[in-house]
Design a protein that fits this description.
- This protein has 318 residues and is an alpha/beta fold.
- The chain contains 11 helices and 10 strands.
- Helix 2 crosses helix 7, helix 5 packs across helix 6 (164-175) and helix 10 packs antiparallel against helix 11.
- GO terms for molecular function: transferase activity.
- Residues 207-281 form the 2-isopropylmalate synthase/homocitrate synthase post-catalytic domain.
Length: 318
């Protein structure tokens, strides 16, 4: 049985945030799919009665202290800068509560073989907390967990660690880990994360970015309208998001037709290519996808121009 620890509250400076925001974020972390939430003693004291003691790890440096009812971590935290330093782990083979940090370069090697080396050097309870120096900490941690190990990371990968929202979703999809998983609270978690840390969530951040399910490219829109699983490994509802088909410089006629239908605007089929050219030109000028109001303005202009041209042709024909 794997064990996943969230270290977000141990990494962030929470001294300036409201206690209410801290409590709500902590409670949502517990719902997100992690087994334990780690924090410093000051956060534990602030959270008080909101803490679920059996799922809370208080980071401590002094083993003489004893907080009744809490898990506690006198962490033998061994930073291993790279694969070449793996042999240094042998000195910790008789310790409990070991966490290995670093090893971001595992992705460059036969990581399954390297996992076996780590297991021979350390007890099974050891946690792996890879750094994100190569942008692959989430992938490394996911593979380690699927191999039966224990691991640690943070929400959004803050602090340079594995982003746990990605790891949890990967485990859910690949191994049906926590089959009843509900991550619809993630948008709220992002709001609280920004409030506590001051860090804005990038719009296209995997899993949690608000624009992750925005689709513009014509071939992608066509595929998603036929079957969302063509491009979406999971439903937007699972993470509290909604799919949005937007029009911009990469859009095709399928995207445009869908958008006009959604807006309740009818345009003759022969006018659609003309409108698509105008849409693409405007999107390039604005350097972004168009808002619904902007699409409607272009549609109305094209409709008037098309009707005027039709009347003109009818006049000359008569």
């Amino acid at each position: 049985m794997i064990r996943l620890t969230d270290m977000t509250l141990a990494v962030l400076d929470t001294t300036k945030c409201k206690t209410e925001a801290l409590v709500e974020f902590y409670e949502l972390l517990l719902l997100m799919g992690v087994d334990r939430v780690e924090m410093n003693l000051t956060e534990a004291q602030r959270l008080g009665s909101a803490l679920v003691k059996e799922r809370t790890v208080v980071r401590m440096d002094d083993p003489s202290k004893n907080l009744e009812g809490f898990s506690w971590l006198l962490c033998h935290e061994m930073e291993v800068s790279g694969i070449c330093d793996l042999s240094l782990l042998e000195r910790y083979k008789h310790h409990d509560n070991i966490r290995i940090t670093g090893l971001g370069d595992l992705i460059l090697y036969d990581f399954q073989s390297e996992f076996q080396k780590i297991r021979r050097l350390l007890p099974m309870s050891a946690e792996l907390c890879p750094d994100n120096g190569y942008g692959c900490a989430g992938a490394i941690l996911t593979e380690w967990l699927m191999d039966g190990g224990n691991g640690a990371g943070t929400f959004m990968g803050v602090g340079g660690f594995a982003p746990l929202e990605e790891v949890i979703m990967a485990l859910h999809i690949a191994r049906q880990h926590r089959p009843c998983l509900d991550l619809s609270m993630l948008p709220r978690m992002c709001q609280l994360f920004t409030e506590i840390s001051g860090i804005k969530v990038p719009s296209h951040k995997s899993i949690v970015g608000h624009a992750v399910f925005e689709v513009e490219s014509g071939i992608h829109v066509d595929g998603i309208l036929k079957d969302p699983m063509n491009y979406e490994p999971f439903s937007p509802d699972l993470v509290g998001a909604k799919r949005q088909i937007v029009v911009g410089k990469h859009s095709g006629l399928v995207s445009l037709k869908h958008c006009l239908s959604k807006l309740g605007f009818e345009l003759p089929a022969e006018a659609l290519p003309l409108m698509l050219n105008d849409v693409r030109r405007e999107a390039v000028s604005l350097r972004r996808a168009l808002a619904d109001s902007e699409v409607l303005l272009i549609a109305e202009k094209v409709r008037v121009d098309h009707e005027t041209e039709s009347i003109s042709h009818g006049y000359h024909a008569s």
